[in-house]
Amino acid sequence: MSEASQEGAPSKAHDVAPALSELKTPCALVDAEIVERNTSRMAETASRLGVALRPHLKTHKCIEVGRLQVRGHFGGVTVSTLAEARFFADHGFRDITWAFPLPPGQLDEVFGLADRVDQFQVLLDHEVTRARVEEETARRGRPLSVLLKVDCGYHRAGVDPRDPESLALAQRIVATPGIDFRGVLTHAGHSYDARTPDEIRIVSRQERDEVVAFARRLRQAGIEVPTVSLGSTPTLCVPAEHLEGVTEVRPGNYAFFDLFQVAVGACRREDVAFSVLATVVGHYPEQRKLLINAGALALSKDLGASHVFPDGGFGRVVSVDGGTEYPDWKITSLSQEHGQVIVPKADALSAFPVGSPLRILPNHSCLTAALFDVYHVVRGNEIIDAWRPIRCW
Ligand SMILES: Cc1ncc(COP(=O)(O)O)c(C=O)c1O
Known about the structure:
Layout: H1 3-7, H2 18-21, E1 27-31, H3 32-49, E2 52-53, H4 63-70, E3 77-79, H5 82-90, E4 95-101, H6 107-116, E5 119-124, H7 127-140, E6 144-150, H8 164-175, E7 179-186, H9 197-220, E8 227-230, H10 233-237, E9 248-249, H11 259-264, E10 274-284, E11 289-292, H12 296-299, E12 316-318, E13 330-334, E14 339-342, E15 357-361, H13 365-369, E16 375-379, E17 382-387
Parallel strand pairs: 1-16, 2-9, 3-4, 4-5, 5-6, 6-7, 7-8, 8-9
Antiparallel strand pairs: 1-10, 10-11, 10-15, 11-14, 12-15, 13-14, 16-17
This protein binds pyridoxal-5'-phosphate.
């Protein structure tokens, strides 16, 4: 018997398909049709712009979505951890870029991975790491494929493309006998500071212009730059008019999207493929409050696009079938396992009796998805599969 029927039947609008109602909550739902649509659209965008798509797999970290993301393209992928790299290498992905500054202490594993796939590329943006790679490649008698990370304005990592020392580092990398220099890579994470598609497009052009200009400077200095790589979900959803000079793009979040992407105008609400199924565990009418069993360990404490919606809360409540939204309901507080939802009027609580399920759209699907060991894959309200992501590092 479902939790809903034990505690009182939900109203007709919130009827639950039996399979969904049997799921233990909180749990993660992925809408297969939306993921297929999102991944096809991005593959078309990359083709239209004349660039290779090397999708980032960090949002979902599961094989099934990775396979959808590479459809129609050359099969290369981007990962954020060595655990992802091992997992995807184990499942037939042959060309992997680890798009994270190389920790010198992890070179053993990096060489192990490089042995198992056709191409495994790592990032450098520092002389100390270059020198360690020089020592290790010489000691092992084996080369390593390296990209130079460039800062196009996000200021998280990467060399300043206007600093002469960045060219000098590139020259030292190229001169390092054990390094196969593959090119330059940048990520416009500051596209997430945008408020509108127009603001995203300004960052998209900046991301392109900075990395292409740097590649040109290297070439003028006699350095071959086969790869010029950029990408984030906002800058590929609202791309620059052209990507001349760019060879590949690496968006990732678009497979699932989330409320952040909706808020900045990178996608529509109906493109959000990931949600959390939770159960109402308490009613507090005097506080106009529902309590749900999805706390910080089911939703993450990411406040999402708070620069656009300062009072957006920790996600958005929708009905189990996803068809009804409750924009005035606010998830105001999360503790480890408790989520508190404030509703505009106490009588609104009757829509979700204690024991009934509801869905939450996440602010940031990368962080929320990472909290679950399995994704229940749905088509409409029917559960059609279970996808198991890789976790940890
Ligand atoms: C280096 C790098 N490349 C690409 C991406 C993908 O960007 P997004 O998550 O916006 O799709 C990320 C995301 O963090 C990243 O760090």
